Amino acid sequence: MDRYMRVLRRAWVGSASVVACISMLAGCSSSSELKDLARSGQAEGARKSVEQRMREYAHRVGEEYPDLRATVTETTDVCSGEGTPPVFDPDPPEKPVMSCYMRMYSYFTSGEKTGAVLCRIAKEMKPVYPSDSAVAEACKGRSTGLHGVLDGKSIGFEWIPADKVAEGSGRLTGEYYEDSASDPSGVDLEAAAEKHGGIFLLSDTRNYLSCTKSGDTGGGEDYSCTPSGE
Q1: I need a labelling partner for 72 at 20 to 30 A (CA). Which of 24, 100, 181, 217 fits?
Q2: 179 in the Ramachandran plot: left (φ > 0), alpha (ψ -120 to 50) or beta?
């Protein structure tokens, strides 16, 4: 009996391995093709379009609060895989095999009116996180991260004390595409924050391209990509 069960277990493991291999072959996308798509004319056009909209939005925020002075803008642009539906699903949901998005960090200084600026921003952006006390905390001059709606767009706006600027943020990585830039280059954020006691950060992240697998042409996989940006 034990011998019979061992044979069955070996047969099951072998079958499971075959199923896993089939699933990988059916579900995995060609890395080289997706890398080409991430560098295609369509992707470049969507990339430039979303960056322009994000920069215009950051500029409007700066104009809304005259006490803010733009210091530097950092952009990170990545394209990564999003997974695929189960291979044996009779009606699988259409999930993107690659999504591209851009994150823009716009840094501002505010001179001696830091507390008033933070309080005004908190009142006008309708913060939804961390709680209803966000406005009160901001107006007390405390270091508060504000996540809410400003000018119809969901954003994160926060005041970073000078001694926290060096901690930076987590680095984004892209499986199929990755790029970053700083404008203007060579700006010492730590020095700017030290001079003003801290620095304001406006964070904005937007998806600009989603690609789905639309079939197999016989000579390779076929994909359909849709620009977005909001």
Answers
A1: 100
A2: beta
